[in-house]
Amino acid sequence: MDWHIIIAASVKIVVFVFLVTLPLVAMSVWAERRVSAAIQDRVGPNRVGPAGLLQAVADGIKFLLKEDFTPDHVRKGYFWLAPALVMVPALMTSAVLPFGSSLFGEKMVIADLDVGPLFVFAVASLSVYGIVLAGWASNSKYPFLGGVRSTSQMISYEISLGLSVVPLIMIYGELNLSSIVQYQAENGWALLPLWGEGLSVKGFLLTIPVLISFIVFMTSMFAETNRLPFDLPECETELVAGYHTEYSSMKFALFFLGEYAAMIIGSGLAVTLFLGGWSLPFGWLTPESADAAVPWWHGLIHIGTFFAKVIALILFFIVIRWTLPRFRYDQLMRLGWVFFFEIALFNVVLTALLMWWLA
Amino acid sequence: MTFLFYIFAALALVGGIGVVVNRNPVSAAFAMIVSFLGLAALFIQLDAYLVGVLQILVYAGAIMVLFIFIIMLLDVRVEENRRFPFFGALCTGGVAAAFAALLLVVLNRSEVGAATLPALAATEGPGSSDVHRIGELLFSQYWFPIQVVGILLLVATIGVVVLSKKELK
Amino acid sequence: MAIVVKRPKLKWWEQLYIPGIISGMRVTLGHFFKIVSGRKKVTMQYPEEKWDESLPEHYRGAPALVKDEQDRERCVACQLCEFICPPRAITIKPEEIPSDDKWAKVEKRPKAFDIDMIRCIYCGLCEEVCPEQAIYLRKDYAITGTSRAEMVHDKKKLYEIGGVRVGLVNKWNELK
């Protein structure tokens, strides 16, 4: 291993994770507050900086300056470990997301693994431990109930989340996220096959399973990130604040930001798998191959496209949160096991049949 | 990158020791996860990405979550209060040490320990990722065992459903 | 009496839940765009926009003491307001007016008149009870201070807020 790779990887990690994703997390908190305010005919935070854009900074300072209180009855070590376990997996998953084609001959993905989606699911499935640990280590009833709920919810929806991606992998015949995006750039996005090979009977027929996949994937993503229609682990009306009831200051902030980081990475994965990642529609500015060099301004446009799509999806997440009421817990479990699991399984069979028939 | 191997091997071992030593079942379960993560990292170091990722996805991400879920709900306190079985620990340690010594001797003496594995097939070009190769192997050479395993799992699932239904009545 | 709530039978497309989500999003996004485009305005940006001109006539703000047209302090230190004040915010120290004063026949005036604005509940009873119409509730509502001592309005401050009020009580005016 030579130093070039290590330096390039470090620069990509620092820029993509710490200079883009983390500020994006802060900005999405701001966006959440402004959008929810607008939906509810209010104004929202608009005092700090232009249009309140620096509100996130103020919030961060507030979190840092608050008293970091550890209750006496908690299991200290685990109590301290839990918030980190929520934040770290969420950021780790960003390693395999291709956030651009290439810039100055350097591929814009931190680790070009051949098992991209699997890696994301594997690491994301570890984030449940942060919540479980928080619930258990807090040693009090509401956090414990929140932790238990979260565990069963995440196990249930992980299955449909994983199965919903299988049809796409069958269509692409590829597990490398960069190659998947390249395929979509050439042959039409999975949900919008309007150019290249996608512009055919096969392409249009295959959008049916892809659309089903997309719905199952997005819903499961909501459940996995504990977003509102499925935010049972921290449902205020029943559990005070759920698993983070006993947390304060920056430790609470880590839970809070971990949710948003997971949301951003989830949107990034959805964009990569279903909406063509960094590629522009109609094959504009498509590079020759996944490894081909492109002019630097193409690279910048591709990075911009990726983040524009991610931000659009985050706004979708936010609007959904302020539109739908919370599910009842048995409804949530029923939806996960009785509907989405079966639909996702059926979808795999449907895709296989369609591909066999159209081959 | 041998130092990475040592780090992750140590992680796996420390996790394993933690499972045995910890009195608290939840702590033991978490130590087991640490051990699995170290193991997964070792697989990934061997370029076996699929196996490594599946190790995390299936064992650390799904099975251990269920384990911890059950342990947390049961709230087992028997182990925590038990006195340290000194004689038992001594015996177990002795057996383990003897087994390790035996392994060392055998692997050092025999040709199995000295032999290096044959080099892997081409790792470049399309369709050469280990996912592709494992998939091809599973659905060509090993398709019959796969079907058998599938049926076994189906039977087990049905059995579980039947058993839990019976208990409800 | 028990009431049986009849659950509506959902059509198959309603059971899909997705049309429900879409119509829900139409409502929320409608509100969103109305607010964002500025077609609907519901909140006042307080320190920049103030509602002073739309305050009602009977608005009860900070209480203040007033002087009459001849620059005489109207308060005669009868202490009725001090007694009626429900939160006991008012403290008055009366003083005799020296005989060489122009208004010696009024006999009493407040030496100190403190209203603790942390206690004041703006009920207006002091204004109502005052026989001399010397205390009034003004329209000042932003009473702030950085310490408790600062929140106590003394006589000087009260006259500063109150100013002069003409008319009504003329019994001390020799010209009338």
Largest interface: A-B, 27 and 22 residues
Give me the number of helical elements of chain A: 11
**What is the helix/strand order of chain A?**
HHHEEHHHHHHHH
Q: Provide the structure class of chain C.
A: alpha+beta
The level 1 CATH classification of the domain at 55-162 in chain C is: Alpha Beta
Low-confidence stretches of chain C: none
Return the domain count of chain A.
Answer: 1
Low-confidence stretches of chain A: none
Describe the largest sheet of chain C. 3 strands, antiparallel
Dominant shape of chain C: elongated
Q: Describe the sheet with the most strands of chain A.
A: 2 strands, antiparallel
Assembly form of the protein: heterotrimer
Known CATH architecture of the domain at 55-162 in chain C? 2-Layer Sandwich
Overall mean pLDDT of chain A: 82
- What is the name of the CATH topology of the domain at 55-162 in chain C? Alpha-Beta Plaits
Report Rg of chain C.
28 Å
Number of strands of chain C: 5
In whole angstroms, the N-to-C terminal distance of chain C is 75 Å
- Percentage of residues in helical conformation of chain C: 10-25%
* Main β-sheet, spatial strand arrangement of chain A: 1-2
With helices defined by DSSP (H or I, 4 residues minimum), what is the helix count of chain C?
5
